[in-house]
Amino acid sequence: MAGIYVHIPFCRRFCIYCDFYSELSFEESSESFLDALSGEIRSRSSWPCASEGIRTLYFGGGTPSLLSCSQFGRIMDALHGVFDLSALEEVTVEVNPDDICRKPSEWPGTLRKMGFNRVSMGVQSFDDGVLRWMNRRHDASEAVRAYEILRDAGFDNISIDLIFGFSGLDDVLWRDTIRSALSLPGGAPEHISAYSMSLEPGSALSEMNRSGRYSEPDEDDTARQYALLQSMLAGAGYEQYEVSNFSMPRKISRHNSSYWDGTPYIGFGPSAHSLTIDSQGRRVRSWNGSDLQAYLSGNSRGGYEILTDEEVSEENIMLGLRCASGASIPSSDADPLVAEGLLIPLSGGRYRIPADKFFISEYIIGRLL
């Protein structure tokens, strides 16, 4: 069963590390964007996976929490007009803490009534100095208050994002960050995504690095912070099911997991990607252009590619080995890495990377491709 991703391409400001496509023109462009989005949704009714039951729906960005309930309603109405959403299991919306704190009190409850049952909140840190440096819009107290608001509205499946592995973050501050996440009011989040900060092309941080205003941390420091994260979350009852993702039992992100196991999905909005299976059984990846004005004029298509059998095999290994479930690998290729302790054999010809080697997963995957 397929999934749907909706990209909301607006932000109030840009975080220094981010390279996701977004614009600062929410007030002047939001209504015309909703018109264009509704039109794109209607145009996809003939896509191969449109006739399948949709299992997951994910609103990402950008900053989806900029939208009002009525704007979300317009999008949901458009989706219901084309797709069978009766089998939806998971409906996720990404939010910024300050938006939650400033929204009308009924905003999260209304989303619950619309069918949203999961929230992914970008916290990143509980240190106000770090948040200012990242150019985040919220402070630590707003993150805690937003979490309380979501709990009070009945959300029992909340994910938060955290970032480690950047200059200035020492082990003490990182430990305190994890402890703050685990002690949030209303109970620890059901899911935590934690990412090592990287220099993404086009991001402000990348420019700071080029100009000498930022230097990446020592890799050993980042590896130690990752190991600390794994240890503390395991001790709190979380299961690590992917390199950057930890969940309480049965609370994995079903939508994101579909990206890693090859489940078809349709993406709407500027820069959104889709994966479908054509009539010949081939995987076809397509994407919209990263240009809001072109999208508003009806020119959303960016390009597509038909994956070869070799590319599918390599992608299955690359994505599968990011997950605890592992990937199918010929034993002749896997055995040398098993001997080095870099892979663990599972049943049915599958192998996985040991949890204590997840930090060097890119190196291990590179040995196989």
UniProtKB/TrEMBL annotation:
A GO cellular-component term linked to this record: cytoplasm
Pfam families assigned to the protein according to its UniProt record, in alphabetical order: Radical_SAM
Record-linked SUPFAM superfamilies: Radical SAM enzymes
Domain Radical SAM core as annotated: residue spans: 1-239
Compartments (UniProt record): Cytoplasm
Record-level GO BP terms: porphyrin-containing compound biosynthetic process
Keywords: 4Fe-4S, Chaperone, Cytoplasm, Heme, Iron, Iron-sulfur, Metal-binding, S-adenosyl-L-methionine
Gene Ontology MF, one: metal ion binding
Physiological role: Probably acts as a heme chaperone, transferring heme to an unknown acceptor. Binds one molecule of heme per monomer, possibly covalently. Binds 1 [4Fe-4S] cluster. The cluster is coordinated with 3 cysteines and an exchangeable S-adenosyl-L-methionine.
Homology family: Belongs to the anaerobic coproporphyrinogen-III oxidase family. HemW subfamily.
UniProt protein name: Heme chaperone HemW
Species, as recorded: Candidatus Merdivivens pullistercoris
Gene (name only): hemW
